[in-house]
Amino acid sequence: MSSLSGRTVAVVGGGFGGLSAACYLADAGADVRLLEKNDQLGGRASRLERDGFKFDMGPSWYLMPDVFERFFAYFGHEPADYYDLEHLDPHYRIFFKDGDQIDIRGDREEMRELFESYEEGAGDAFEEYLDTSRTHYETAMEKFVYEDRSRLRDWVDPEVMKAAPIGLQLTGSMQDYVDEYFDNPKLKQIMQYSLVFLGGAPKNTPALYNIMSHVDFNLGVYYPDGGLGAVVDGVVELGEELGVTYETGSEVTSLTKGRDNFIVEVEDGARVLEPDNVVVNADYRHAEQELLPEHERQYDEEYWEERTYAPSAYLLYMGVEGDVEPLEHHTLVLPEDWDPHFEQIFDDPTWPDEPAYYICVPSKTDDSVAPEGHSNLFVLVPIAPGLADGDSIRDQYREKILDDIAEHTGVELHDRTVVEEQFAVSDFVDRYNATEGTALGLAHTLRQTALLRPSNRSSAVDGLYFTGSFTTPGIGVPMCLISGQHAAEALVEDAAAVTQ
User: Fold this and answer.
1) 419 within a domain of the structure (yes/no)
2) Taking the CB of residue 355, how many other CB atoms lie within 10 A of it?
3) Which of 272, 348, 410, 481 has a CA between 20 and 30 Å from the CA of residue 156?
4) Is residue 113 domain-shared with residue 205, that is, in the same domain?
């Protein structure tokens, strides 16, 4: 990147997008100060520590290792300089609520045979699907993810126009796409479960996201020792080496453009910063509607009301006595028909009657996250954003989920809990200023993909930029790392244009 020597930049929010942008900007020579509302860095990748238990509160899957390698390589490092990784095998276990159980492993031939055992011809279909997924992934990453194409003019490129018809499935739904390969409903669920992590449903997520099967089966699933919090620590340490200044417990309450600089108020004006540029990693809607004055907003409230938000979540963090066999490090519990659950998220918002959910048990891999003789686990149930989530419904749902776990996995948790915390819609609002309590950001629907997501550049205020899961390239830790680079590159490009 070009030099930003002598330029000051405030980064608002310490999620992965903000941490990434801070590193790139500091490397370019800027004086970078990152302001984080909460007492921890990492945004949704926060940690909860109680009585010897250490929980990742948010992301827990380490996917797309190539993105992390690329991020650290830019600065002359590799992930191993900051944290250790362990390949998980099985990648995850699935309990279907009809009593069936499947382990998804890293051996592709074994997985081919598994698919064939469920449906004649599905083994060949599996191979074809993954080969196509690999091609789509490599093309998408090179042409549409690592390259910031958040403006229409960015798509008027012969190479891009050539790439799209080659195989990127930009239209149609994942459901229709997967239906072309498989008939067995369980195989379809295996190929589509990761859509939950993209904040979508099979019916409303573009078929482009078949790339996630390459991520799942070909790139593998890993665990960073110490959890995803160890990755946060690694990126923060890198930023410190580059000269980034971090301030936690510093909530930005007002942001506006002055004559020569920005005016950033912290804690209702208790402190004021005047940086040359600002990069916002806070919730995009919150920043525009609550921090910026009306004349500096790109979008009105109607725009935000019309967006489709990714699910919120009901989270149950539990420290329990003894082990939790037969759960794996990553475990999914899926109903035979999951359409009603998606409908209760996107179409008729209510607490799901027959939920699909995820259980993470890091103590299966890492002894440091729980006291000896105990297990560390959390349960995540995707729910509609904006739901009322008072104590009464939470308590009812806790019993429902624990009963469901006991029935479908054989693990009884009711009387073994020594540490417990719950987290749901209102907590996402309070802790992260999350619009409607979304756990992820904007869903990856066809109308909210690529340049149809809010831009990294503000169209209303020169020198203001955005990063994170509301903008391009999208949801997830790897995407937010890349988003930070996009925001930083946009700032550098614009600063260079001004000085020419």
Assistant:
1) no
2) 24
3) 481
4) yes
Q: For residue range 79-111, what is the model confidence (pLDDT) as tens digits?
A: 999 999 999 999 999 999 999 999 999 999 999
Enumerate residues 6+ apart whose C-beta is below 8 A from 271.
Answer: 250, 265
* 201 and 242, same domain (yes or no): no
- Type of residue at 457: R
**pLDDT tens sequence across 158-203:** 454 444 544 444 568 899 999 999 999 999 999 998 887 677 888 8
Do 331 and 92 touch, CB atoms closer than 8 A?
Answer: yes
For residue 338, report the phi and psi dihedrals to the nearest 5 degrees.
Answer: -100, 0
Residue 278 lies in a domain: yes
The closest alpha carbon to 469, from 6, 20, 80, 9, belongs to 20
Instruction: Establish if 127 belongs to a structural domain.
Output: yes
State the distance between the two ends of the chain, measured CA to CA, in whole angstroms.
15
Residues 260, 179, single domain; the answer is no
Number of independent structural domains in the chain:
2
DSSP H or E run through 24: helix 16-27
* Whether the bond into 478 is cis, omega within 30 of 0: no
Judge whether 454 and 284 are in contact, CB under 8 Å.
yes
- Domain of 303, in residue numbers: 8-45+63-84+226-307+454-499
271 domain residue, yes or no: yes
Which uninterrupted H or E stretch holds 349? none
Do 210 and 115 share a structural domain?
Answer: yes
pTM given for the model? 0.94
Residues 6+ positions from 83 with CB-CB distance below 8 Å: 224, 225, 226, 230, 231, 233, 234
